[in-house]
Amino acid sequence: MIDLTIVEALKKLKSREISATELTRAHLSRIEKFGSELNCYITTTPERALADAAAADERYANGTARVLDGIPIAMKDLFATRGIRTTAASKMLENFIPEYESTISQKYIDAGTVLLGKANLDEFAMGTFSKTSYFGAPVSPWQRERKLTAGGSSGGTTSAVAGGLAMGGTGTDTGGSIRFPASITGLVGVKPTYGLCSRWGCIAFASSLDTPGPIARTVDDAAILLSIMAGHDPKDSTSAPNQNFHIESELEPILGNGKKLRIGIIKEFKDVEISADMKKIFEARIADLKSAGAEIVEVSIPNILDALAAYYIIAPAEASSNLARYDGVRYGLRVEGNDIYDTYKKTRAAGFGEEVQRRMIIGTAVLSSESYDVYFMQAARVRRLIANAFNKAFEQCDLIVCPAGAGTAMPLDSDLSPLEYYALDLFTVAMNLAGVPAVSTPAGLATNNLPLGMQVVGKRFDDLRVLQLAKHIQQFSGVDNRPTKIMGE
């Protein structure tokens, strides 16, 4: 049962070939066996999972089954879950138990999913390898004896899904935190159009960039999960009105049978250094797309290589503002000081890790009166130029494809500087700045037998076509991402 996709499992559940309880027990056994080694969960919820599964079985029996009834999932530990510890992988919130449910997790409840637990991540989603987690880094199930990164910040979810410790899960993408970890673990990671999925109840990092999205093994599975997550939320002021994403069944092909599609290649990415394997696989998938009838055109996003610098001004600035609420007064960690100001300082020094502190300091600096116009406003102008350039590019093509990363997963103990970690986001941050949808999908295996991912990017609210093209690429890739295959069983 571990190797079933969500689509396959739903068919078997509906036909009563398997039960939700059997499916859940199989995943709980998997967590018991590999959970400690992969460190993909911060909090597991076996009792809740079995109760969810029993309720799903009852609904299947009486004919009232919901859309995703009985599907076991992992919830990134940024989404508030009523009565269940929600930590953001930080000492600051180590013992925080919300009294409310995030919109996204509530939608999963309403769809009938089974909650296996809260997935590990970088502290407050700030990082690339999930190494900043207060609870230790999750490990990729691929060649796990090498202790490879599962990526970040949604590394716990990708580790769980790739290893068969969940059938799918949630992530958040601020600068690539869904797409990069998905690409190096052989999964599908969706960054929807900004505003398509509600951020209410999701612990904020950078509010104008944070985008909840699904992670799954196949594009069809990811599309089903996105269909559950999407929709307007009056509780979220940035939620897009009159926009939705809904599919009834598996995605329809977007290529073949005479269908014409113009696919753009970003000119400015041509000179960016990527691994020989990534270059070879990218060229192979482009050839596949041409063979399927797509027209390949070159497009220009003139400021896209400036996106990284703009992102690392805007994101820390917003983080500095968002994380000001953690002061030891209302909730979370509190370290007593000599007075209220000393309490603030001691609480924040003890509660936040090094990377979070670094970004907050940067963010506070660029928002100062001396630096605001020089740094923050300049970054905001670059952001607007990038968004406009994407709009212009989509006048010349329907969709854009590019690498999701420069190469395969690296060892967790790789000795990279903060700037080298930041540079890993080069292929992903521009899409967050522009608010456009982007999907990372398996593109092939490198010579070291580790997965590589490609991105499909579309215009705002063109999420369906982005997924449709991503499905073609996944099929061309031939990557076998069954958990038992990955774990060498």
* Global morphology: globular
Helix and strand content put the structural class at: alpha/beta
State the end-to-end CA separation: 14 Å
Q: Report the C-alpha radius of gyration, rounded.
A: 21 Å
Encode the helix/strand succession as letters: HHEHEHEHEHEEHEHEHHHHEHHEEHH
Q: What is the CATH architecture term of the largest domain?
A: Alpha-Beta Complex
Number of helical stretches of at least 4 residues:
16
Q: What can you tell me about this protein's structure?
A:
It is built from 16 helices and eleven strands. The protein has helices spanning 6-14, 20-38, 46-62, 103-111, 155-162, 179-184, 219-229, 276-291, 307-322, 340-351, 354-366, 372-393, 418-423, 429-434, 463-477, 483-486, and strands at 41-44, 72-76, 114-119, 168-173, 188-191, 211-216, 261-266, 294-299, 399-403, 438-445, 451-457. The protein has an eleven-stranded mixed beta sheet with strand order 1-3-2-4-6-5-10-11-9-7-8, with helices on both faces. Helix 2 runs antiparallel to helix 3 (46-62). It is globular and about 70 Å long.
